[in-house]
Amino acid sequence: MSFFWLFPFLLHLSFADSLSPLSAPVQNFIHLNHSCPSSILTYSRNSTYFTNLKTLLSSLSSRNASYSTGFQTATAGQAPDRVTGLFLCRGDVSQEVCRNCVAFSVKETLYWCPYNKEVVLYYDECMLRYSHRNILSTVTYDGSAILLNGANISSSNQNQVDEFRDLVSSTLNLAAVEAANSSKKFYTRKVITPQPLYLLVQCTPDLTRQDCLRCLQKSIKGMSLYRIGGRFFYPSCNSRYENYSFYNETATRSSSPPSLPPRSTPQQQLKLAPPPLISERGKGRNSSVIIVVVVPIIALLLLFVAFFSLRAKKTRTNYEREPLTEESDDITTAGSLQFDFKAIEAATNKFCETNKLGQGGFGEVYKGIFPSGVQVAVKRLSKTSGQGEREFANEVIVVAKLQHRNLVRLLGFCLERDERILVYEFVPNKSLDYFIFDSTMQSLLDWTRRYKIIGGIARGILYLHQDSRLTIIHRDLKAGNILLGDDMNAKIADFGMARIFGMDQTEANTRRIVGTYGYMSPEYAMYGQFSMKSDVYSFGVLVLEIISGKKNSNVYQMDGTSAGNLVTYTWRLWSNGSPLELVDPSFRDNYRINEVSRCIHIALLCVQEEAEDRPTMSAIVQMLTTSSIALAVPQRPGFFFRSSKHEQVGLVDRLSINTSALCSVDDASITNVTPR
After folding, report:
1. What is the C-alpha to C-alpha distance for residues 523 and 529, in angstroms, rounded to an integer?
2. Whole-number average pLDDT of the chain
3. Has 368 been labeled as part of a binding site?
4. How far apart are CA 495 and CA 510, in angstroms?
């Protein structure tokens, strides 16, 4: 049994239990995409809507649902707290796969879209959807998703490319007509070209013929047909094409017209000689030979199977007996998430330079695309990096157990020979520092988006500190470790330096100082003391950088003299009554003064010198979401620089003496062993 538990980040753990009607273990399904727009109303855990939602999801994942048809709708409650939902399984999957996929998606819905009233989750085998509005028999184009094969059509001849595009378009549109006319609203097609082409289209069966056809045609137009494969999802329909068989051809054979065999010429018929006839005497002799040869081979194979089955069972039992602790971080227990190196190598085109996404703290990160079309981020650890076996194991163990929309999701790992690789979900919009520290990119993140990012980071850290099964201290929160999803949703990444706390543990000491210059709290950088308040300090620095578009590590001028780093500069502006001078000029006047001022105030509370003065992440989330909460007066920040270089506060004086080897001169993460 794998020790990678899936546990909900919501406090109401009974929710997961109430949605587990199946006795058999549910297999994992790859999450392709989700839609939970922030503009839609949310609900609270004590609301009637949440009670109705639990009833609805239990109904959709019950044994009585219509898995045989692959489609089920349900409604729970009365207006204004009514919840309407449905699931749609791919038309070729079995009832068992459909049932397991729906059960899996029901369990995951609150991981991806906590407290959202309108949700769509996309998996390869099924789609789950619910809303506070009536979504039945209605076409919806909101919440779309597109996945494209990374390879372009391999032809330098533009005419051939256009011919392929026309073939895909025309065949998909013909399939759309067939699907719209069918009762199941599902159709597949296989076309024999120089290379086979496989296509699949599907609508929710509750749509009319016209609505289904219109939806499929719109989805086909939404795809880039210059790739060798792609798919487009709407909540009401989806279409896909590939150059390999991605569906069960046996299950869909009735919907695909069989290809007639080519007519053979008389000369070709002569070459198709019938098999030799065997006399009764020869038949008996041949049968004896077959028995003598085949039976020992089968017996030998059965012995091998029995041996390895017993060995695997023994290994699995050992894993079950060893509970997960910070010390018991044997990476071999993650077998269920292990990827084959050749598969990763193929997905990244042998780690091609064109697929390189960037340079991480311990190695390079590449984009990979598996044959199923799933895009991933592959972190290939450098053989000369500072991350050893412990850091690698730590990142796998920590991240694989974390499920939250504001955390990057670990899909698996590879540990072969001297290769150590982590496979994450692909986050398309790079990292936060790529936008806020670049003068040409800053304008793409207006204040509304940045305010949402601040809230997302806060919720992600709160989950690490309080709402996950274990208390996780990240220890390297910085702009480069905040990735941005499709909707600029913030996702915390890079857990190679994270630490797990025990149930009653609140702080710890270490001789191994890790982190990034400018983000480390004073007590951690000086004495190796770290706690949840260490991450709070880093969060405060992050907020100031997001608001200003400036790096904390730079030195800033004020009234013609040095004002120190960004934290000190902000404190001086705050003390002078002019905090809004910190605001990124790219906002112009398009921001809410009260929101920006409140965020600056909260950030200064986070970077106070004394750890006990800093708020907890739960208090910070409340401060960000409830404007009526009064804020305390911030005290002087840690690492405060006075106007004269001879008047630096004591901590800074000592830092210059004791931590020359601790702080990196750039933004790279550092790992150094220093005495306390």
Report:
1. 6
2. 77
3. no
4. 17
Closest by Cα among 527, 524, 435, 428 to 485: 428
Q: CA–CA separation, 102 vs 95, rounded Å?
A: 11
Tell whether residue 363 is among the known ligand binding residues. yes
Which residue segments constitute the domains of the chain, with CATH numbers given? 14-136 (3.30.430.20), 146-258 (3.30.430.20), 331-425 (3.30.200.20), 432-673 (1.10.510.10)
3-state SS, residue 245: coil
Give tens-digit pLDDT for 114-168: 888 999 999 999 999 999 999 999 999 988 888 887 666 766 677 777 788 888 8
629/618 Cα distance (integer angstroms): 13
Angle made by CA atoms 625, 55, 60, in degrees to the nearest 5 = 110
The catalytic site residues sit at: 476
Does the annotation flag 379 for ligand binding? yes
Element (H, E) at 450: helix 447-462
Helices 593-606 and 566-575 sit at what angle, rounded to 10 degrees?
120
Q: Which residues contact 83 (CB under 8 A, 6 or more apart)?
A: 49, 52, 53, 55, 56, 75, 76, 77, 130, 131, 132
pLDDT (mean) for 518-522: 86
370 is in an annotated binding site: no
- Token reading at 416: 């072969």
Q: Confirm if 70 and 92 have CB atoms less than 8 A apart.
A: no
The kind and range of the H/E element at 363 are strand 363-369
Residue 365 assigned to a binding site: yes
* DSSP SS3 for 608: strand
Q: Is 234 helix (H, G, I), strand (E, B) or coil?
A: coil
80 cis-preceded (ω within 30 degrees of 0):
yes
Q: Give the containing element (helix H, strand E) for 358.
A: strand 356-359
Q: How far is Cα of residue 667 from the mean position of the Cα atoms in its chain?
A: 25
Backbone angles phi, psi at 642, to 5 degrees: -85, 170
DSSP 58: H
Structure tokens that stand for 440 in this block: 């040409």
Answer yes or no: is 549 a known binding residue: no
- Identify which of 18-22, 361-365, 373-377 has the greatest average pLDDT: 373-377
